[in-house]
Amino acid sequence: MRRREFINLLGGMVAAWPLAARAQQPAKPVIGWMSTRSADDSMHVLDNFRQGLSEQGYVDGQNVSIEFRWAQGNYDRLRGLAAELVHRPVAVLAAIGGQQSARAAKAATSSIPIVFSLGEDPVEEGLVSSLSRPGGNITGATFLTSLLGAKRLGLLRDLVPGAELVALLVNPNTPQGQKQTKDVEAAARALGQRLLVLDGGSDEAIERSSAALAAQQVTALLVGADPFFDTRRDRLIALAAQHKLPAIYQFREYALAGGLMSYGASIIDMYRQVGLYVGRVLKGEKPADLPVIQVSKFELVINLKTAKRLGIKIPDNVMSLADEVVE
After folding, report:
1. Alpha carbon distance 84, 214 (integer Å)
2. In Å, how far are 9, 18, 24, 293 from 21, measured between CA atoms?
């Protein structure tokens, strides 16, 4: 072979190498993210999910991508969103924001791995066989926020010992909302506390309940745990401010946004844990072998600016319990 022909041949081979290398590189895995919540009220915690992913070596936009679907509090959309992601198809489904999302994901696929986050007992909900050995293609994290209604009522009474009538705003359209109502009603009876249960299951119901707060002369408000409420967070904080009511909510984000007080599991820690599990699944671990994480970090957050605006002095015994104070 002549020298010029050899150089031309070699040059052609070198030019082809990048194309061949690119052809051999595996495509980036896609994470399907489906949430009962909305993008607007979740951006601040998505960073924690991405942090968990990065701890497993995955960086969104570099070696993995995320495809988002948001139900925006409309639970009827979840089955369709799950079907879209399964059809995509994705490498793993992150089913975020309660058992409604986890159920829709589980109904959509028995083969694609699923990592959930929810505030209920996943065994009781029929999602997994046990916490230690979930079985099937699903695992995740639970933080039992929907079971803390009685504790929140106690904290609200400590904050406002003379509250004559406490209102519980709850979503009655879900089994979790119905259970919360029974739990808080039982706690109120034990404490001798008058309780008014109000429907918050839709925007129209919230408006009707707002009118009832004034008509019934409610003196304190307990907002139940529900992803639907998270998508209406600012509206519910404004509602309490409108009626000058001391109120307690489920997540720290409510207190940071102007709510008086929140008590519940650390949603930041939960999102990070879900990110860690999604990363482990992408590495090849099976959901059936990953125990359900029980998030055990609970936090009481008090907003002193809101307390001052309401003319409320936080009792020393309540302040001593606070994990964070917004000044």
Report:
1. 44
2. 18, 5, 5, 40
Residues 127 and 182 reside in one and the same domain:
no
pLDDT score, position 90? 97
What are the residues whose beta carbons fall under 8 Å from the beta carbon of 138, sequence distance 6 or more? 102, 105, 106, 113, 114, 115, 116, 127, 128, 287
- How sure is the predictor about 45, in pLDDT bands with cuts at 50, 70 and 90? confident
Which of 83, 68, 66, 70 has its CA nearest to residue 31? 66
Give the domain extent around 85. Answer: 30-143+266-296
Quickly list DSSP for 97-109: SSHHHHHHHHHH-
pLDDT digit string (tens) for 188-210? Answer: 999 999 999 999 999 999 999 99
The phi-psi region of residue 139 (left if phi > 0; otherwise alpha if psi is between -120 and 50; otherwise beta) is beta
pTM exceeds 0.70 for this model: yes
- Opening angle at CA 286, ends 136 and 289, nearest 5: 75
Q: Do 86 and 45 lie in a common domain? A: yes
Average pLDDT of the segment spanning 292-308: 93
| Residue 276 and residue 249 share a domain | no
Shared domain for 180 and 311, answered yes or no, is yes
**CATH number of the domain where residue 69 is located:** 3.40.50.2300
DSSP result, 199-239: E-SSHHHHHHHHHHHHHTT--EEEEPP-HHHHTTHHHHHHH
Q: What is the DSSP string of 119-185?
A: SS-TTTTTS-S-SS---TTEEEEE--GGG-HHHHHHHHHHHSTT-SEEEEEE-TTSHHHHHHHHHHH
At 92, the amino acid letter reads V
Question: Across the beta sheet with 194-199, what order do the strands follow?
Answer: 194-199, 165-170, 220-223, 247-249, 261-265, 298-303, 324-326
Same domain, 134 and 258: no
188 lies in the same domain as 278: no
